From TrEMBL:
GO cellular component: mitochondrion
Protein name: ABC1 atypical kinase-like domain-containing protein
SUPFAM superfamilies in the cross-refs: Protein kinase-like (PK-like) (SSF56112)
UniProt similarity note: Belongs to the protein kinase superfamily. ADCK protein kinase family.
InterPro entries documented for this protein: ABC1_dom (IPR004147), ADCK_kinase (IPR052402), Kinase-like_dom_sf (IPR011009)
Stretches assigned to the ABC1 atypical kinase-like domain: 5-125
């Protein structure tokens, strides 16, 4: 509230920003919210063949524990090297952009922690034989 004493920054709504930040941080430490978000993403991408989200296993979801289905895959960073075929890198990039644009403009529900450790790739090892199928992004 101290910052609101300065008229030049009132338009920033600092109090509301701090309150929203606090709410989000409290939710981050309760893994039941993470499970709920995974289910939300799963529903949003149902019928989409290029993105997969692990599903929470509800008997094992508590405030402090989250057990999910296992998705066999490799980190996206494995495919970012110049040795990886350009076509495969382009396909992965397109899938990632399509995923992000759908989250932002269609679903209005965005995974805010998108970094190489949270994005995995399945099926890329079969790209040479069947480039039109099988490669999937797994978002943790």
């Amino acid at each position: 509230r101290f910052l609101e004493l300065f008229p030049g920054i009132r338009w920033l709504s600092v109090t509301e920003i701090v309150e929203e930040f606090e709410k989000l941080m409290v939710q981050q430490i309760d893994l039941r919210y993470e499970a709920k978000n995974l289910e939300h993403f799963h529903l949003n991408f149902k019928g989409t063949d290029y993105v997969r989200f692990p599903l929470p296993l509800h008997p094992f979801v508590t405030k402090n524990v989250l057990v999910e289905t296992f998705e066999e895959s490799k980190p996206i960073s494995h495919y970012l090297h110049i040795e990886t075929k350009r076509e495969l890198r382009q396909k992965i990039a397109k899938m990632g952009m399509d995923m992000l644009l759908k989250m932002v403009f269609v679903d209005n529900f965005v995974h805010a922690d998108l970094h190489p450790g949270n994005i995995l790739v399945q099926g890329a090892e079969h790209f040479d034989d069947h480039p039109e199928e099988g490669t999937v992004i797994v978002d943790l």
